[in-house]
Description:
Elements: E1 5-7, E2 13-14, E3 17-18, H1 22-31, H2 33-45, E4 47-48, E5 57-59, H3 63-90, E6 118-120, H4 125-129, H5 133-139, H6 142-152, E7 154-155, E8 158-159, E9 165-167, H7 174-184, H8 191-206, H9 213-218, H10 222-241, E10 247-251, H11 260-265, E11 270-271, H12 276-284, E12 295-299
Antiparallel strand pairs: 1-2, 1-5, 3-4, 6-9, 7-8, 10-11, 10-12
Amino acid sequence: xxxxxxxxxxxxxxxxxVAGSIIITLILIWFAVIPAIIxxxxxxxxxRCRQCGSPAIMPLHSPLAQQTIQRQQDRQNYENLMxxxxxxxxxxxxxxxIEPNLPPSLPPELPPVEVFAIDKxxxxxxxxxxxLQRWYQATFNDEQKHRLEERFGTVSGNKLASGPVRFKFxxxxxLQFLYDLEEKLKPQEFxxxxxxxxxxxxxxxxxxxxxxxxxxxNEKYYKSWFALMKYRIDALNKLKDDNYFRQGQFDAIxxxxxxxxxxxxxxxxxxxxxxxLDRAFDQHFFEPTKGCRCTVxxxxx
Length: 301
């Protein structure tokens, strides 16, 4: 049975299907065997989501897939809770019945206040939260700001350049923010704004490690390597602080963009207590590896 995968496009969990068509294979066999074999190898390496046909799939057991599924479940649970609360509010509250010689009943308890890991009562939205006010004001004209803020909209309750900022989770990062903002600006009509955001993203990423210009502009997953580093570092620190895990490993996404350094280290165990995982982490993430989307996780002996 094929290993189940998670589709990052439609969010479904299913067995993958191979690309192409068996009919083409049969036609190729009729003329020549070798092209048919090559075509079948290509099909086996290019798997798709069975539901939507997208190639954006990852193994179901991978940490990235599990984190994405968990976030979806958390969001669904939150939406269900809010729906139930709204239904309760819409129901009429019966008048309290006062028994003889008894004090009136106490008013019902209010629902618990939602708690945020980050709650900043500011005026400038995410731009102010990440300290980008000077860049934002100096870089964009009024028309570009309008298009930029309209395109960004509201993400997780936060606006781009106005209002307070709240996050349920503490591991927010400016590189992830700029990467996500850039992804929203890829349509051609935002190309002028995209270039300006990309310049700032490159500056912020350059504070982390040296940027190679031709890789930045042309290499797939090069920019995402910087956007994922905060999550990798947080995962490493959590493993070191948690006495439950004694071994750690790196998980690579094995697809056509994966390169040998990631495939070589994927699945190997490193001792957390004696610093082996620390040293392997520093070596593997010293600089961006082509195609690297490795994640870090722990396990028991």
